[in-house]
Amino acid sequence: MKFKVERICRTDSMSAIPMESVRFNIPASAEAMQDRGMAVEPHELYLVVMIDDLDLTVYPSGRVLLHPLNDKTRAKELAQRMFEMMVRE
Fold first, then answer.
1. Whole-angstrom Cα distance, residue 33 to residue 48?
2. CATH number of the domain enclosing 78
3. Which of 19, 62, 87, 89 lies 20 to 30 Å (CA to CA) from residue 42?
4. Half-sphere exposure (Cβ direction) of 8: Cα atoms closer than 13 Å
5. Residue 76 CB neighbours (<10 A)
């Protein structure tokens, strides 16, 4: 999936935004990630995945917020990893 990564102004966060229209199933994605041993905190409207000392918030639209992070290369790697594990609707 093609996506762009942008730094969020005045914060130590990055945002990965899909370049195509996509919808992810949050409950199914949470279950799939938990089955892979990921630390996951599902919410009604989003999913928080903990990797190392980072929180990745994933929305059904595919947007991923990565915090705290200012490294664009690392943000791309983590976002790609999330997109590969997410379950589409």
1. 11
2. 3.30.310
3. 19
4. 15
5. 16
Average pLDDT over residues 45-51: 96
**Single-letter amino acid, residue 17:** I
Q: How many domains does the chain have?
A: 1
Tokens 């690392």 appear where? 74
Does the pTM of the predicted model rise above 0.85? yes
Give the span between the Cα atoms of 1 and 3, in whole angstroms: 6
Residue type, 18: P
Bridge pairing between strands 54-58 and 3-7: unpaired
What pLDDT shows up at residue 10?
78
**6 three-class SS:** strand
- Decide if pLDDT at 11 tops 90: no
Backbone angles phi, psi at 68, to 5 degrees: -80, 130
Query: What domain range includes position 72?
Result: 3-85
Helices 72-85, 26-35: crossing angle, 10 deg rounding: 100
